[in-house]
Each structure stands twice: as C-alpha cells, then as structure tokens.
Amino acid sequence: MTRVVPASTPRLRFREIEPTDLGLIAEMMSNADVMRFYPKLFTRVDAAAWIQRQRARYAADGHGLWIVEELSSGALVGQVGLLMQTVEGFPAPRYPEIGYLLHRPFWKRGLATEAAIAVRAYAFDLMCYDEVISLIRPVNLPSQAVARRLGMTVRGRTAFHDLEHLVFGISRASYESSAR
After folding, report:
1. DSSP-assigned beta bridge partners for residue 84
2. Which of 27, 29, 31, 139 is the most buried (most CB within 10 A)?
3. What are the start-end ranges of the H helices in 40-159?
4. Measuring CA to CA, which residue among 113, 139, 140, 123 is closest to residue 84?
5. What is the CA radius of gyration of the chain?
6. What's the Cα-to-Cα distance from 52 to each of 6, 10, 58, 90, rounded to whole Å?
7. Which stretches within the chain are classed as H helix?
8. Is the pTM of this model over 0.90?
C-alpha cells in the first residue's frame, strides 16, 4: 500500500513517526498536562510501543498518527493523524478517527486545528472516506473545540478504553457543502 502524508499547511509539515522520535514521544507522553485526559502517563517503554503501533498502522491502513513539525523552526509540535478505531454501539465496525496530541509548548496557537483540518482533507479527498470521527472525553473541552472547528457534531457516546467518550463526526457531504 502506498503511504502518503497530508499536505503541508502554512505553518506545519507531516511525516511518519520514526523510532528516532522516541525522545520527543516519551517526553510529551510523560507530561501530566499533555496526558491529563488519558488513563495514565506513558513510560519510555510505553512510548516505544506507541511508536511501533503507529508504524503497524501505516503498514495496515496506510495512515496513523504522524509527527507534525513546525515549518519555520523544524520543531516537533506533536502527533496528529488518522486512526482506524472500533466504536462500540455504532453501525460500522471501524471508523477513521482524526486524533491530535500536541506537546505543551505548542498549545493555544491554533496548531491542532490547522493540522486536524489538513488530516480531514486527507481523509475525504485522498482516502475517500465517507465519514470521520473524533473520540473525545466529555471533560476534554479543548479537544471538543477543535472538533467543532472541523465541522464535527456529537453523534453519541461510547466506552473507549473503559472511559466514556463523546463521538464527534462529520460526513463527506457536510465537508463538501461547507467547502463551497
């Protein structure tokens, strides 16, 4: 399967996560602020396994979470991408999810939204998915705001990794009508 990353944005570029990114991933995912809506902080071993999961997703699905770099500085901003998820209680067995996790120094600059918009375009324009979702904890108001800026609305609730999540979603038809 040919793998393509989303197009660069005015401030960001995407690339596949490499094993050499372990330092950044471990630093970011052991940060209590960054991980406050996750069940636990990640150890370096957890971060290495996370990288391997993303690389397995690239091989299986052609996409996963990508490293996002700031164009002006080359700094590693975080991870944003498209993940295939199983959502209990919803009609289709698997859904493409837009996921985003930025390192603390890059918050409140609109970078998560900018990157997620590029991933949404990738999902609809290149991968031709009919719908994308984002699974977001009810207490995670910043991520809900990003989802709303993507045109997503709440489609329901589900248990995901034993925690309640809101299922935000947008269809290709809604995306295309908003682009006109």
Report:
1. 96
2. 29
3. 44-61, 111-121, 141-149
4. 123
5. 15
6. 20, 29, 10, 28
7. 22-29, 44-61, 111-121, 141-149, 172-179
8. yes
